[in-house]
Amino acid sequence: MRTFIAVFLIAYSVQGHSQSDYEQEIIEWQTKLNEEFSNPEESPLSKKEIKKFKTLDFFEIDQKYKIEADFEPTPFEKPITIPTTTDQLPVYVQYGIAHFELDGQKVSLPIYQNLQLRETDQYKDYLFAPFTDETNGFSTYGGGRYLDLKIPETQDKIVLDFNKAYNPYCAYSAAYSCPIPPRENDLALKIEAGVKAWEK
Predict the structure, then answer these.
(1) Is the distance from CB of 37 to CB of 53 less than 8 angstroms?
(2) Confidence check: pLDDT of 11 > 70
(3) 7 CB-contact burial (10 Å; exposed 0-12 / middle 13-18 / buried 19+)
(4) pLDDT band at 6 (very low <50, low <70, confident <90, very high)
(5) pTM assigned to the model
(6) Hey, how many other C-beta atoms are within 10 angstroms of the C-beta on 163?
(7) Which of 186, 183, 153 is nearest to 83 (CA)?
């Protein structure tokens, strides 16, 4: 009996430590994002808004939204233009599709690579997952949100962390051109994680 209790307590302690480490990772990500919004050289906010800015509004951190999804590479897709909030038409190619289950629903999320960025050393492994979900226009920005990803080390899995979902700059200012999530990236469920809607 004592052995069982000891093993249980050790397991509980390890699990609790892991959860704390994960929460700290997301808090650090949120802090960095807030620092960018406070910096006049990086922020999409107006000078007046920066002076009043304290923090973005985030959902509670929930580890269920960090998902190791099955990854289906799509190497033969042709380049496409993705409409934006302006007349700009950046060129992307669908790099693959993430398949996962969330809240009892099977989900497929196309993931893209910007053809211009992949020619640069800094962003050659950068992937982009714009999405909309059923929180848009309510607790989150109506135009959808984004996830930044990297080309996975293994070609059969990819980690999607919706606790790091963020708003396009268009959520803060009409001066920016932002890709509009394709219809295929509309998720028929609520993603209550990441950055919430901006209220001036």
Answers:
(1) yes
(2) no
(3) exposed
(4) very low
(5) 0.89
(6) 24
(7) 183
